[in-house]
């Protein structure tokens, strides 16, 4: 299913290269020409040429029999508090929270047949509101998600090929609309439809994520151009690829700046205690979730959203052949715990297909760079830029998660102590991964990708 308009076909200038250059390439590089990959175009993967993985138009509000989900989320925003929040102002909202959850349980089960992305976003927000508005119990017990939410979100998720839980796509990609509806969505013209806390910290966190996604659209164009080259060993094609790699360096440097500037708009303390608890999925806290009415509920992917689910960042890794899964022997050898968690199932199915097909390109750009001095230098510059990005990511994560974990929760000392008792175990990212080891694994895998050791 595609929610975007088709892109105009662009003929490649490299089809006009003559027989002379093909003979020259074969003799100089000792490699037979590699043809373009048929069908590898952004439009085939629900990727827009202007907005990338964002939908090109805001998702329409659910209507008809499915509007009840929209209304339920309308009622939740601003009226429901975190169950683990022990401040009196939060406790005052608990009676409404219980009556709201009772109304959600009473909703009749419906089979959605349209507006799937919007339906997933609304249902995922409802699930997290339902779970996290409940005060934690003294002993870990499973949290039951009622059939009225569990069955529809699982059905919608199967149609979209995405996990039946809140994901990066729900909080950022499918949640964004233009601030000025007369202009297209952009880094400077964006706002978000739904939020949990309603505070500026959550809003600015999503804006920073969106800025990175939109800046990464240029990388998607670079990738498509590479896949469409009729003959990668052609001297003109090699020159273009080298230039594109240097363009990629600039984009990744901009992504690093966006990441480092997040602290100017996103308060670490507010983010840790007031925003990120809403994002946690099953197993990220004390309790596992059970989706009532869903067979084998314990096998569902329910970790919750994280920036590690960004298809743009995964596309950079696949394009540069960063080997997170240790499929290839590279130096220095990593430790066993440095294997990266797979976030693919938390991306929309079309975007997963984009990454799979990109990984299946006949010859990776890293392989080409090994035999081309011109490509090798540009390639390593791109990998170094990505490594610097991951170094910056580790510093930001330390500030927002690891350091904040040692702070006192908001409220009076008694309220803070009551809440802090529930905060135990390794420091995890919002998607459930142990954040320090995960980010170090990503940094180490990127370092192993360099062709020239520095």
From TrEMBL:
Entry keyword Metal-binding: yes
Keyword Lyase among record annotations: no
Binding site for heme b: 393
A Pfam entry, by short name: IDO
GO cellular component, one term: cytoplasm
Domain of life: Eukaryota
Protein name, UniProt field: Indoleamine 2,3-dioxygenase
Alphabetized UniProt keyword annotations: Heme, Iron, Metal-binding
Taxonomic placement: Eukaryota, Fungi, Dikarya, Basidiomycota, Agaricomycotina
Renumbered residue ranges of the record's region Disordered: 407-454
Example GO molecular function: heme binding
Any single biological process term in GO: L-tryptophan catabolic process to kynurenine
Family named by the database record: Belongs to the indoleamine 2,3-dioxygenase family.
Native organism: Lactarius akahatsu
InterPro entries for the chain: Indolamine_dOase, Trp/Indoleamine_2_3_dOase-like
